[in-house]
Amino acid sequence: MNISLIDKIRTIINPQTYRGEKSYIDNILIEYKNKRPNYEEFRSASHKAIEALLKEQGYKYQILSRTKTPERLKEKLIRKKEAGIQYNSLDDIEDLVGLRIIFYTEHDKEKFIKKIKSEMSGLLKVEEIEKDNGYQATHIIMSFGPKRIKLSEYKHFNNLKSEIQITSILHHAWAEIEHDLIYKDINGLKNRDPEKFEIMKHRMTQLMERYIKKAALELEDIINEDVE
């Protein structure tokens, strides 16, 4: 990277005023690698706390959780930087710990969202996500509340946040397929044949509209009839 004379002068006067893209990303990655064991403990504690609520209500569900790898974090930082978004610190990144809860029905999903709102006393930001590609889920940013943080085994989780994605089973299956074929482009089609890639994206969107959404509604009806 070539640094201009003005930038060189700035670094001499105040080294903190000049931070290139590489140093910005590297600084966050170094901090994350040092703190990742704590984030992994937080993931485990969050998973157990959420699953306790799920079991208490007798839901049919699947729960998955992960702590973001340094490699995936680097990809995210580069992607956001290219989109004009720069995080000021590691604390600003809210999905380093992620959980996904998959329900059989939208009814159970909505019921659980109300439950978690009433039970969790920490940070709780709820957002309904529906994208053009068919992805549909409720995202919740959560942290532990003051009472739990006061406990010795939870003190080191202060200010840590997790992102909980709550969806139904058919939307989850669709999201996994779309993520691999379009978002990650595991076959490299976008570079090999951009026109064909766009056609595939269009066909995937049509498939979601014609079949997946309809199937999700019909499954909901079948399950509700069985319950009644």
Salient structural properties:
single chain, 228 residues, alpha+beta, disordered N terminus
Gist of the model:
The chain has 228 residues and is α+β, with helices and mostly antiparallel strands. Helix content is 57%, strand content 15%.
Structural write-up:
With 228 residues, the protein is an alpha+beta fold. It has a domain at 22-169: Beta Polymerase, domain 2 (2-Layer Sandwich), CATH 3.30.460. It is 57% helix and 15% strand. The chain contains 8 helices and 5 strands, in the order ααβαβαββαβααα. It has helices at residues 5-13, 21-57, 70-82, 106-119, 146-150, 169-183, 189-192, 194-227, and strands spanning 61-67, 97-103, 124-130, 136-142, 162-168. Strands 1-2-5-4-3 form a 5-stranded mixed sheet, with helices on both faces. A hairpin with a 5-residue loop joins strand 3 (124-130) and strand 4. Helix 2 packs across helix 3 (70-82) and helix 6 packs antiparallel against helix 8. It starts with a helix and ends with a helix. 18% of the residues are buried. One of its GO terms (biological process) is guanosine tetraphosphate metabolic process. Residues 65-189 form the RelA/SpoT domain. This is RelA/SpoT domain-containing protein.
Radius of gyration: 21 Å
How big a fraction of the residues is strand? 15-25%
CATH topology of the domain at 22-169: Beta Polymerase, domain 2
Ends distance: 67 Å
Protein name: RelA/SpoT domain-containing protein
InterPro entries: NT_sf, RelA_SpoT
Domain RelA/SpoT: 65-189
